[in-house]
Automatic annotation (TrEMBL):
It comes from the Bacteria. GO terms for molecular function: peptidyl-prolyl cis-trans isomerase activity. Keywords: Isomerase, Rotamase, Signal. Residues 177-269 form the PpiC domain. Transmembrane segments: none annotated. The lineage of its organism: Bacteria, Bacillati, Bacillota, Clostridia, Lachnospirales. The keyword Isomerase applies. This is Peptidyl-prolyl cis-trans isomerase C/foldase protein PrsA. It comes from Natranaerovirga hydrolytica. InterPro entries: PPIase_dom_sf (IPR046357), PPIase_PpiC (IPR000297), PrsA_foldase (IPR050245), Trigger_fact/SurA_dom_sf (IPR027304). Residues 1-21 form the signal peptide.
Length: 333
């Protein structure tokens, strides 16, 4: 999400699998971002660059760096996100000091555990102090978010709209309605309406429906099954579906017109949804509700962050920053 505050733990950030920016010790100490009097050096920025590189390649592979996004290269978009995330983290941590917030003993132990795990999974020269700092700042961002959104009252109308607009939930909802098994006769061509009416009347008068299907139906796809389909809501033409679901088992429809032609439908039976499908629907709906509340919380927190940000002067060392390009992997010797 474009506005999303970076509040996710930085466990995965600290997995270095390649290097698209190589620097000497002096270069690593170059200031890349200044936020008021606070300075962020290349060595720290590089960790975020490596993670964003991994994220982009997980989505589009290494070819993603050849892609343009609204006139910007993927590298430019990724670098903008890195700057935005770092600035957010630093400002929120600065405000946390003003609010008197810090980590507790349990969180300190968790940070130490993450650092030790990182050291075990990575070889080479590791700046343990920097690694610990990044984890610490991530924990603080989460704490500030939780504190400032504590007691947040979500907008129920927004939550309902969020749920209603989800296509996956709509699909699951249709599954909960169960299936219908129905046979039909298709007569193609507008000029054959009278013929369709005559066949429908014969079916209503008790002629064997399957015999009429085999003699007259022009739906080649269903002929092998005697004109039969078994389907959920949302799978067939709306007019066809509405008729089939509203008939009683054994009942024959009027002549139904769709873009395919004229249909005479006989509903056979209704098949209830399984308990598993209903459970999936309810569980997914609950997830959406939680997501909606989180989005609203995040938006509220973002507004507060934007107010804080107005009091900060942010400078980027463009001379160095412009020379950094993501997606260029240099093998380490």
């Amino acid at each position: 999400m474009k506005r999303r505050i970076c509040i996710v733990m930085l466990v995965v950030i600290l997995i270095i699998s390649g290097c698209s920016v190589q620097e000497t010790k002096n270069e690593a100490e170059e200031v890349i971002i200044s936020i008021n009097e606070q300075e962020v050096f290349l060595e720290e920025v590089e960790i975020y660059l490596k993670e964003i590189e991994k994220e982009f390649e997980a989505i589009g592979g290494k070819d993603i760096w050849e892609t343009n996004f609204d006139g910007k290269t993927a590298s430019e978009v990724a670098k903008e996100r890195v700057i935005e995330n770092i600035v957010q983290i630093k400002i929120i941590n600065d405000k946390a000091k003003e609010l008197g917030m810090d980590i507790d003993q349990e969180e300190s132990e968790s940070i130490n555990e993450y650092v030790q795990n990182y050291k075990k999974s990575n070889e080479g020269n590791i700046n343990e102090t920097l690694v610990e700092q990044i984890f610490y700042e991530s924990f603080i961002v989460n704490k500030v978010f939780e504190e400032l959104t504590k007691g947040f009252e979500p907008n129920l109308e927004q939550t309902q709209e969020y749920i209603n607009n989800d296509e996956t939930l709509e699909f699951l909802y249709y599954l909960t309605l169960g299936q219908v098994r129905a046979k039909h006769i298709l007569i193609e061509g507008e000029e054959h309406y009278k013929k369709a009416v005559e066949i429908q009347e014969r079916a209503k008068d008790g002629e064997d429906f399957v015999s009429l299907v085999l003699e007259y139906s022009e739906d080649q796809a269903s002929l092998e099954d005697n004109g039969e389909y078994t389907f959920y809501r949302g799978e067939m033409m709306p007019e066809f579906e509405e008729a089939a679901f509203n008939l009683e088992p054994g009942e024959i429809s009027e002549v139904i017109e769709t873009s395919y032609g004229y249909h005479i439908i006989q509903t056979e039976e209704f098949i209830d949804a399984t308990e598993n499908i209903v459970e999936q629907y309810e569980a997914y709906k609950e997830v959406l509700e939680e997501e909606s509340i989180y989005v609203q919380k995040n938006n509220a927190f973002y507004k507060q962050y934007e107010e804080w940000k107005r009091n900060y002067t942010i400078r980027v060392n463009e001379e160095i920053w412009e020379d950094i390009t993501l997606g260029i992997i240099i093998d380490e010797e």
